[in-house]
Amino acid sequence: MDGVFNENDISHIVDADKAHVWHHLTQHKAFETGDPRIILEGKGMRVWDQKGKEYLDAVSGGVWTVNVGYGRESIAKAVYDQLIKLCYFAQSAGSIPGSLFSEKLISKMPGMSRVYYCNSGSEANEKVFKMVRQIAHKKYGGKKHKILFRDRDYHGGTLATMSAGGQEERVAQYGPLAPGFVKVPHCMEYRAQWDLSGEAYGQRAADAIEEVILAEGPETVGAICLEPVTAGGGVITPPPGYWERVQEICKKYDVLLHIDEVVCGIGRTGTWFGYQQYGIKPDFVTMAKGVASGYAAIACMVTTEEVFDMFKDDASDPMNYFRDISTFGGCAAGPAAALENMRIIEDENLLDNCTAMGERMMGNLEALMEKHKVIGDVRGKGLFLGAELVADRGTKEAVDEKLVGQVVAECGAQGVLIGATNRSIPGLNNVLCFSPALIATADDIDQITDTVDRALTKAFG
């Protein structure tokens, strides 16, 4: 770490943070007797805190974002050059990076054609919800307005996206929630709701969606919002047969398919988008985190020309277009950073590296599962993996959340930052989460899993 701050500077920063910053997902009572962690610098896969401690970051910025690693001067330069030329103009007009990135992005998404820029993943999902509601009014007299969502999935922190959130602890105390959102069962084979496995379970989990549609009335259901791989709900990969049947059901009942790629998008699973792992043909795709690897704020809602045309079929009606604005969707830095981010992924073959290193990490986790009985299941796709901790493999009883926290903390003490499900599923916040940057090497992967090995041994023997 470059020595930029002296001890007095650091002390002032910590004091200012404690006095004025409200951290995300944090109980601040602890800061009455201790200090928050301040991250001062990052390079490649490593970050350094205010004490000079080095960490290998196995969660890409804490929330699955920094896909190409820290310290990318070419992205910083692209942002700098763009800000000097044009920092911002409302997205009612175009910009050079906005036009070029949309072209580049669509080239990676066969079947899609239109990009709507906005501020965050939550907001991108809200755009889809608004479009679905507007389509319902335009085509179905307002009736086909309901939006289905899946148990354990997460789609954001706004009131509408929480209403479409399948994680009970995320939405607790924030009601009443918005009406018109209906939950369907999860597709987590490890905790199967039916005595089935493999493709039979996958099809049954999808059939449960049809049952909900029929119960609600197909004429009232406009869309379903799903993650390709459930992220914060436990890193849940869909079972075989699931997505094929989901698409059949959507087509049968004229239900628009919305894929939330906020976590999985831009290489995380080894393809540009997670849905491309499963042959899905979506009507909407939303993305944020990895789009610019955190170097600038950007989120996108992408859709088909067929959907786009629904909003320009009658120019004589002044209410017939998508009447929406996203203030910081007009920031030119976002698409400028995103263009360079994609160039890096292509030129450095990071999709292939993600697949190879993901296979290595999965193998390492499976070896840990053989060694530690506390690991009940390992799962994931590419460099997005999870290990579920259980007190008993037979009953699948989850370990106490405090013990999960101890494992995370011990990894941090040993210089590796990992994640875990947190305030999501009551009694089931028991999954260790891993999402190292796509630049990870074999040595990085081994360091992560070796550290987890030692932390598990210390916590459970």
Automatic annotation (TrEMBL):
Essential cofactor(s): pyridoxal 5'-phosphate
What PROSITE patterns does this protein map onto?
AA_TRANSFER_CLASS_3 (PS00600)
Q: Which Gene Ontology molecular-function terms are recorded?
A: pyridoxal phosphate binding; transaminase activity
Instruction: Give the superkingdom in one word.
Output: Bacteria
InterPro entries, alphabetized: Aminotrans_3, Aminotrans_3_PPA_site, PyrdxlP-dep_Trfase, PyrdxlP-dep_Trfase_major, PyrdxlP-dep_Trfase_small
Concerning its family, UniProt says: Belongs to the class-III pyridoxal-phosphate-dependent aminotransferase family.
Q: Which Pfam families match?
A: Aminotran_3
| SUPFAM superfamilies in alphabetical order | PLP-dependent transferases
Give the UniProt keywords, A-Z: Aminotransferase, Pyridoxal phosphate, Transferase
Please state what the protein is called. Answer: Aspartate aminotransferase family protein
